[in-house]
Amino acid sequence: MFSSQGPSLRELAVQALSSVERGYDLLAPKFDHTPFRTPDGVLDATADALRPLGPFGRGLDVCCGTGAGMRTLAAVCQGRIAGVDFSSGMLAQAREAHPDAELVRADVRDLSFGAEFDLAVTFGALGHLLPSERPAVFAGVHRALRPGGLFAFPIGGPPPVTSVLYWALLGFDAVMRVRNAVWRPPFVMYYRTCPLGAVRDDLATAGFDVTTVPLTALGRRPDGAPRFRLVLARKPA
Ligand SMILES: C[S@@+](CC[C@H](N)C(=O)[O-])C[C@H]1O[C@@H](n2cnc3c(N)ncnc32)[C@H](O)[C@@H]1O
């Protein structure tokens, strides 16, 4: 499935019936050959939008997986970069890709970093958090940043109800809800639980000043709206 180097349908099914942590442990060696790894275009557009706001000192990739977002951090940070994830399999891959980085195994719902980073990013992971879990994650990232530090991540605009994507995401989330109602352990991954408005409110509650900029390099929808915006959540200086 996906490519000859990617996981087979059977492997994906086994992973989907596991917990999030175990599922990613199993997927890790083939993760970079799946569409779940954030594409380089998104990473580069994020780096381009962050560059004028930097340079930054130390950077942290939250839910780093195999280390895709650390490519963005490396482009804009002058200090040592770090990644945090709870899957030891994903961290092992990240360690190969970024041997000089600090890699920490932890659950991002309970981060214990002090104020040591100037920039934090996250890619492709918010859907793994229930809305009720976001405040604790954002509070942990807030604590991890120095005063004046920035938490940045791209977020897709809602697809129009007339689009195939709208119905595909709705269908995916419905299947996951059924799966999680009948099977343990749960695999939390929902596409429609982190709209910009709710995420913005949770960031503000955690103490961030929040703005967004369009990532125009990633295209516009037929109605002219940007497909992606970059959320810029600043910890007050
Ligand atoms: C879709 S992958 C994204 C990986 C990478 N950021 C990227 O964009 O390619 C999601 C990652 O989030 C991690 N993750 C999910 N929930 C987590 C949690 N509560 N604590 C730590 N890591 C978590 C998973 O282990 C996985 O590596």
TrEMBL record:
Cross-referenced CDD domains: AdoMet_MTases
KW Phosphoprotein (keyword) present: no
Keywords assigned by UniProt, alphabetized: Methyltransferase, Transferase
GO BP annotations listed: methylation
Residue ranges of domain Methyltransferase in the record: 60-149
InterPro entries: Methyltransf_25, SAM-dependent_MTases_sf
Pfam families membership: Methyltransf_25
Keyword Transferase in record: yes
Gene Ontology molecular-function annotations: methyltransferase activity
Protein name as annotated: Methyltransferase domain-containing protein
Lineage: Bacteria, Bacillati, Actinomycetota, Actinomycetes, Streptosporangiales
